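We close this part of the discussion by returning to an individual protein. The amino acid sequence and the C-alpha cells for this protein are reproduced below:
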Amino acid sequence: METYYLSVLSLAPVFTVALFLVILRWPASRAMPLSYLVAAGLALFVWNVPGTQVAAATINGLIVAGTLLYIIFGAILLLNTLQESGALRTIRRGFTDITPDRRIQVIIIAWLFGSFIEGSAGFGTPAAVAVPLLVGLGFPALAAVVAGMLIQSTPVSFGAAGTPILVGVSTGLSGAENVEAFAAAGGFHEWTDFLAMIGTKVAFLHAITGTLVPLIVLGCMTRFFGENRSFADGLRVWRFALFAAFAMTIPYIIVANLLGPEFPALLGGLTGLAIVVTAAKRGLFMPDPSEYWDFPNKDKWDPEWSGTIEIRDDSSKATMSSLMAWAPYGLVGLLLVLTRLRALPFSGWLNAWSVRWPDILGSSITASFQPLFLPGTIFIVVSLTTFLLHRVDTASYGKAWSNSIKTTAAASVALVFTVPMVQVFINSGGGAAGFDRMPIALADGVASLAGSAWPIFAPFIGGLGAFVAGSNTVSNMMFSLFQFGVGERIGVDPSWMVALQAVGGAAGNMICVHNVVTASAVVGLLGKEGTVIRMTILPFVYYALLPGSIGYLIVWHADKGLLNAGTVLIAAIIAFVVYFVSSQLRHGSPS
C-alpha cells in the first residue's frame, strides 16, 4: 500500500500544474509558485528531507532559471536586431518567393530548420530560433509557439549532438552491474557500442512515430488559427507533409545506424531542409496557387494569439540580399555545430570556464554552468556581428537591447518558480523517511499497476520526467535504470524499455512547462502557457502511445504471438488516423 500512497503523493506537484495551469488557465507566474510550495511541503514534511537540501535545490533551480533567461534574452536580442536592420523583411520576402502558403512555411521552418537546430544545440534552442522567425514572417505568436513545441519530439533524443543518449542514458545506466552484464552478454564490450545500439532502437521508434508530426503541426495550425477553424485546411497538403517527414526521417535513421547518436537529428534536419526547399521551389507536391492558405487578417485574430513583440514591416530600412539577411541565422547554426561536436576542440575550450557552487549549503547538490558554452552567448555574439555586418545605427541597436531586456524580465517570474519546483521534486531523496525521491516513487506505483503491460506505459513515464524536469536528458538520467530494471522484472529485453524511455522523454518536451515558458517568452507571449499545453497534450499522447504499442509488440511477440495488445493498439491508431484524415478531406468542414 505504501507504494501507491507515495505514488499518489508524488503526483501532487504535477497535478497542481495540470489543475491551475491547464484546466483553470492560470498563467505560469501564478500556478508555478503553488506547485513549488506543494513540492517543497511534501519534501519537508512527508519525505522528511532536510531544510538545507530543499533550500539547496531551490538555489540550484534559481541558477538554472538564470541560464534559461540568458538564452531567452540572447534569442530575443537577435530577433530585435534583425528587425532593426531590415533583415526580417528580406527573409519574409524570400519565403514568399518560395510560397506564400503558411502551411509550407511552417514545415520548412519548424519541422526541418527546427530539427537541425535541435540536433546542433538541443535544450529548447529551436524555440529560441524557429519560433521568433515564424513570428517575423507574420505568424501569430501563439501559433508559432505551438508549432515550435510540437516538433520538440522526433529530433530531441539526438539533440545537442546526442546528449540525451550519450549523457542522459549513459549516466542513468553506467555503473550498474546488471546493465554491464547484459551489455557484455550481448557482445557490447565497448560502452559506446551499447549506447549506439540503444540509439538505433530509439531512432527506429521515432522514425515511425515522427512520420505524422508535420501533418499534426498543419492540422493544429489550421484548426486553432485558421479562419475556418478546420483540420481539413491543413490536411489538404498531406502529400507535402509526408514528403517532408520522410525527407528528414529516412536520413535520420540511416545516420543513427551508420554514425551513432551524435548526428541523426542534425544531419536528418539539414538533409531534409535541402531536399524539401529544392522540391518546393520546383513545385513538387505543392498546392495550387489558387489554394494557398494564410491566417485571417490580423484584425480578426483572437487577442490571445499575439505577443508583446511586434514585428514591424519598416519599408524605410535599406533592402539587402537574401544571403546577407540569412547570414546571422547561418552563423548561429555554424557556431552551434562547431561548439557542440566533440571531435572539435571548441567545446572543450568553451567548457573550460565553468562557474561552480559545489555542495550548496552543505548538501550533495552542486550548481554549475559554462557561460561561454550557453546558446545565449552565441546569440549575443551573432547579434553584435549583425550590428556591424548590417550597419545598424546605434540608436536602433540600443532600442533592440532595451526591448529585449523588458521582454526577458517579464518571463522571469514564471521561471524562478518553475525550475526550483523541478529541482526540489528531483532532489527529494535521502530524507529521514527513507523514501525514494518523488519521480521514482511515482514511477514505482505505475509499474506496480501496469505489470506486463509496462511497455505501453514506459514512454509516458519518460514524458512525465521531461514534463517536470524540462529536459529529455534529465528524464533519461532519472528513469533509465528504473526502466531497465522493470524490463528485467517482467522478463523482456530491457534495452527496449530504455529506448521507450528515451522516446517518451523526447515527446515530453511538447508539454514541458518551462520549455513552453521559454518559447513563449522569446515572442513576448506570457500567461498563455496553459493554452499551449492544451493544444499539445493530445499530440503528446499519440507520441507516447504509438511507440509504447510498438514496443509491446516487439518485446512480447515471441511469447504472445504477433496478434497481441500492441498489435491491436497499433491497428486502432492507424485506423483512426486514416479515418480522421479521409473524413476531413472528404467533408472539409470545420471540426
Summary: The two ends are 44 Å apart (CA to CA). The mean pLDDT is 88.
